[in-house]
Design a protein that fits this description.
Layout (H helix, E strand, L loop, with lengths): L50 E10 L5 H14 L3 E6 L3 E10 L2 H15 L9 E9 H10 L10 E4 L1
Parallel strand pairs: 2-5
Antiparallel strand pairs: 1-3, 1-4, 2-3
Length: 161
């Protein structure tokens, strides 16, 4: 096992192999918790033009039936393939996923549009965004390593709080 700073490639390697979100992850680079990107595969964005950002979006509003919330979040997960996990109650929900973007501003802009743009198609409740955290992959992994970050999104999927 080699050690280095979180997100860094081991010396002498040119690529990192990541798996898709379909599996269950362990919360570290190379796990199913992170989608593969062109940058990670040495593709066109390998020059650092795009990075992975861990997004936590919190929404809240008037109470809604739990079954409808769950179905809506499941439809959202189908529409947004990198959705990791959603937790919900009858008046709030938290959505966690990886976003590939040039910088934090782009990742945050996409996150802030996610709920509104999918509200009709996924039949989501008319809730408002009440919280947003967007952090770089390296920061996410450092938090996990230090023991104070969010627990890794395992199991992947839609779950009650």
């Amino acid at each position: 096992m080699t050690q280095g700073r979180p997100g860094a490639l081991p010396r002498g390697t040119a690529q990192r192999t990541l798996t898709s979100v379909q599996g269950t992850g362990g919360g570290h680079a190379g796990s199913a918790e992170e989608p593969a990107t062109a940058a990670d595969a040495g593709g066109p964005a390998a020059d650092g033009a795009h990075r992975l950002w861990h997004v936590t979006l919190s929404v809240a509003g008037p109470e809604a039936p739990l079954k409808e919330i769950r179905r809506g979040l499941e439809r959202l997960a189908h529409d947004h393939p990198f959705l990791l996990t959603s937790r919900y109650a009858n008046d709030h929900a938290e959505i966690r996923y990886w976003e590939e973007a040039r910088d934090l501003h782009d990742a945050a802009a996409v996150a802030l549009r996610l709920w509104g743009e999918h509200r009709a198609s996924a039949q989501l409740p008319p809730w408002e965004i009440v919280g947003l955290e967007v952090i770089a992959r390296e920061t996410y992994h450092q938090r996990i390593a230090d023991g104070y970050g969010p627990a890794p999104a395992v199991p992947v999927g839609v779950h009650p709080f």
